Amino acid sequence: MSLYGLLGKTLKHSFSKGFFTDKFAKEGRTEDRYDNFELEHIGQLESLLQQHPDLRGLNVTIPYKEAVLPFLHAKNEVVAAIGACNCIKIENGKLHGFNTDVVGFRDSLQKRLQPQHTHALVLGTGGAAKAVFYVLEQLGIAYQVVSRTKTSDTITYEEVTPDLMASHRLVINTSPVGMYPKMDKAPLLPYDAISPAHLLFDLIYNPEQTLFLKHGADRGAQTANGYEMLIGQALESWRIWTGSEHG
Q1: Which residue ranges does the record assign to the Shikimate dehydrogenase substrate binding N-terminal domain (predicted)?
Q2: What would the pLDDT profile of 184-201 be if each residue is shown by its tens digit?
Q3: Pairing of strands 94-98, 87-91
Q4: What span, in angstroms and rounded, lies between the C-alpha atoms of 195 and 162?
Q5: Structure pTM?
């Protein structure tokens, strides 16, 4: 038997266990299992590995995509470049880090891009945001990062003016604001500056339409949630773990 799982802090609403359990059944891998592993802090990872010597792969979610890096024995070029890991392959006791968020986000975003989407606002600075930055750089899209705290690389939500919103026609939410169960929340932005030329992309997939996306749709903007990205990154994890192309 091979064991796989999801590493995070609060996982009761996780998509991954159901997805991979169904995937293993569909592929006839009846001996394989996928479990959720909730850790109060990342230092518990070592004991988890000792308790489960049959672990062959892990997905990593909030808040450990960056904190897991010191535990890796090897990182692929994307993890090394962006400093965030959401997929681990375990071979001979060695942890090899990958980032499948990059693949999932890139494939979902590219099919929706229009010629006017040359400048983006990226909301949030966590591990998922780093995958977004990497993809935007690869696609040649300039971006401004928006955070609750101002730094040399970010502006605050209060600094997003209607003119800035109007000129940045791609807006990507990587923060958890609006996620279930706090669905009455949305990033504080001048939504009246949104037009049908905008694309609003929310990495959240639960609920299907966040308040952020609803504000965009109400003003005629194109919108996309994170479900397609989630499927894409999960299938890429499958390929990394099993060597099988996803179907």
Answers
A1: 6-88
A2: 999 999 999 999 999 999
A3: antiparallel
A4: 11
A5: 0.90
Residue 238 CA to residue 234 CA, distance in Å, equals 6
Q: Is 3.40.50.450 the CATH classification of the domain at 3-99?
A: no
Domain 103-228: CATH superfamily, name plus number: NAD(P)-binding Rossmann-like Domain (3.40.50.720)
Helices (H), the chain: 16-26, 45-51, 77-82, 101-110, 127-139, 162-167, 211-218, 227-242
Average pLDDT on 149-170 reads: 97
C-alpha 217/C-alpha 219 separation (Å) is: 5
Residue positions annotated with a catalytic role:
65
119-123: strand order across its sheet:
154-156, 142-147, 119-123, 170-173, 199-202, 222-224
> pLDDT, tens digit, for every residue of 80-95?
999 999 999 999 999 9
